[in-house]
Design a protein that fits this description.
This protein is an alpha/beta fold. It has 2 domains: 5-169, Rossmann fold (3-Layer(aba) Sandwich); 173-452, 2-Layer Sandwich (Dihydrodipicolinate Reductase, domain 2), CATH 3.30.360.10. It contains 15 helices and 16 strands. The structure holds NADP nicotinamide-adenine-dinucleotide phosphate. Residues 10-15, 18, 43-45, 79-81, 109-112, 140-141 line the site of NADP nicotinamide-adenine-dinucleotide phosphate. Belongs to the glucose-6-phosphate dehydrogenase family.
Length: 454
């Protein structure tokens, strides 16, 4: 098993405590990565390794055997913006971790504005060089703040590293049911011939949250639902649902098919097809501009301009402070055009395939069936598959899967640069249309539902 070194920039941040440390611990605990793995946690705060671990103990909610895990951890205090600090970091790594034996993984868990400077530091500090395939650099989402900044970051990052050393994370792609989309679509013959505009009436991709911005107001206010959710998570779901069948299912083939979908995404912007909202009380959240026009809700109707999808609406809906926490994809199939000759039209409903991503993992398939008894009346019923219930032990967290793939050098579940580029292009068009629009204020989802569901 390989000896891995993880270096986390932004290790005193929310993401590291909530996701990265628990995921790394579980991978080590299950022997999926070596127990000799070393993790250097970098922050600005004045911690020693001992006091960092004490702080992590209070911040990390997951169960961790700290007496074991702490042997892998180091805290290293540095200013990410200071180039000499990277030279000193290299010396620290050489003295403490015997680096360069196996994989060295540099994880940028910071705001995207710091990506270029950290990338430069890693390169100029000789921590990773272009030819070194054991050196990998991981960028958290969002990659950029708009198309221009994303292009600029990418150009800088590509000056320092090869594309196959770069891992741009979108943790939705590590979720079990997102990985399951390809299996459902391409391993079930029943869907093959109807996965197009002759079989499908509409596709809805939604990610609803009940909470507000909590302590992330400062970050969120500069982003909003379009950039925080649609540009990455929802676009990735859409591209997996709508991509053409890959020929050989290798990494490049799959990424190529995905990018072709995003390139063809079109929307006829008008008040019917695009709605942005802001929850009441948002402007009073900590870190939020009191005059903010940032959207906390988006509904968008788009189309994919290909033979397969011509005429099929793709509805995208996401927001905060809504009625439920739910992320799912609803495929609604066309009705059987003859069924009403035998059964009342309103008793027959369209078949629906629902891929449930979060918080439950599963699949629901709705079909019409006869009501039991002597009458021949019809009603819709659901066939329900609970994915989590079938798992032996807990389902792996998205970050566990993605961190393991980075160690293994598998880039399939990491968006390629052109996927990110085209998704920013689309979001920039939406933003340009919206201009200075004031989002409508909402207090609950019902008020929005009436406006978006006709
Ligand atoms: N939080 C989540 O659930 C989540 C989920 C998905 C993606 N993300 C993405 O992950 C990234 C990090 O998010 P986060 O919520 O963890 O952010 P955060 O809580 O604000 O943490 C930011 C981290 O960056 C460090 N930092 C900032 N400037 C620095 C400097 N000049 N030198 C050294 N360290 C510096 C901070 O160190 P100090 O605290 O020591 O100053 C802190 O460790 C963002 O890109 C975010 O979009 C977060």
């Amino acid at each position: 098993m390989k000896n891995n070194l993880f270096v986390i920039f932004g290790a005193t941040g929310n993401l590291t405590y909530k996701k990265l440390l628990p995921a790394l611990y579980r991978l080590m605990d299950q022997n999926l990565i070596s127990s000799a793995t070393k993790i250097i946690c970098i922050g600005r705060k004045n911690f020693t390794t001992k006091s960092y671990i004490e702080d992590a103990l209070t911040q990390v909610k997951e169960e961790i055997n700290w007496s074991v895990f702490k042997k892998s951890l180091f805290y290293y205090q540095m200013d990410i913006e200071s180039m000499p600090d990277y030279i000193a970091l290299k010396t620290f790594i050489e003295n403490n971790c015997q680096m360069y034996t196996d994989n060295s993984i540099f994880y940028l868990a910071t705001a995207p504005g710091l990506f270029p400077i950290i990338a430069r530091g890693i390169s100029e500090g000789n921590l990773v060089s272009k030819e070194d395939l054991k050196g990998r650099v991981v960028f958290e989402k969002p990659f950029g703040e708009d198309l221009d900044s994303a292009k600029k970051y990418n150009q800088m990052v590509r000056d320092y590293f090869d594309e196959n050393q770069i891992y741009r994370i979108d943790h939705y792609l590590g979720k079990e049911m997102i990985q399951n989309i390809l299996v459902v679509r391409f391993s079930n013959k029943i869907f093959e011939d109807i996965w197009n505009n002759k079989g499908i009436k509409s596709v809805t991709i939604l990610a609803k949250e009940t909470g507000g911005v909590m302590n992330r107001g400062g970050y969120y206010d500069g982003s909003g639902a379009l950039k925080d959710m649609v540009q990455n998570h929802l676009m990735q779901m859409l591209s997996l649902i709508a991509m053409e069948p890959p020929e050989d299912f290798d990494t490049d083939d799959i990424r190529q098919r995905k990018v072709q979908v995003i390139q063809k995404l079109k929307a006829n912007f008008n008040a019917e097809n695009l709605l942005v909202g802001q929850y009441k009380g948002y402007k009073k959240e900590k870190g939020v501009d009191p005059d903010s026009k940032t959207e906390t809700f988006v509904f968008l109707k788009a189309e994919i301009d290909t033979e397969r999808w011509k005429g099929v609406p793709f509805y995208i809906l996401t927001g905060k402070q809504l009625d439920e926490k739910k992320s799912e994809i609803i495929i609604e199939f066309l009705e059987n055009s003859h069924s009403h000759k035998k059964w009342p039209k309103d008793s027959i409903q369209s078949n629906r395939l629902i891929i449930r991503v979060d918080p439950e993992d599963g699949i629901t398939f709705q079909i019409n069936t006869k009501i039991p008894g002597l009458s021949s009346d019809v009603k819709p019923v659901v066939l329900d598959y609970c994915h989590g219930c079938q798992a032996i032990g807990n389902l792996p967290e998205a970050y566990e899967k993605l961190l393991l793939d980075i160690v293994l050098g598998d880039t399939t579940l990491f968006p390629r640069w052109d996927e990110i580029e085209h998704s920013w292009q689309f979001i920039d068009q939406v933003k340009a249309y919206l201009g200075d629009t004031t989002p409508i204020e909402y207090t609950n989802f019902e008020e929005l539902r009436k406006k978006v569901i006709k």
